[in-house]
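Encode chain A's predicted structure.
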Amino acid sequence: LTGDIERDQEIRLLREQPEALRADVLLAPHHGSKTSSSAAFLDAVHPRVAVFQAGHHNRYGHPADEVLRRYEERGIARFDSPHCGAWAWHSDSLGQARVSGLCVRDAARRYWHWRDPQRP
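Encoded structure for chain A:
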């Protein structure tokens, strides 16, 4: 859980605890801002999945396109709360994360989004 760390804090973690950074699922640092998710940090964590928490149409534009590209270049599956809503996932008894999570917004549509296929 990275919280609002930025590049400087990532560098410090890389310097002080590089072996402790490996994770299957990464809560993207600082909502995916331009000042986070450095290439070196992503390479050290080596996640299979990243989750970006940000407000829908937030004024900061999180997650930043250049940050999303860094994740994409590394083949990291990405989920973001502005599009996905909450992302639900589980880990097995060995602590291995299942990459296939569930976007709650897609799974639990609001009743006013439902349309009867029989009605025009």
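The chain has five helices and five strands.
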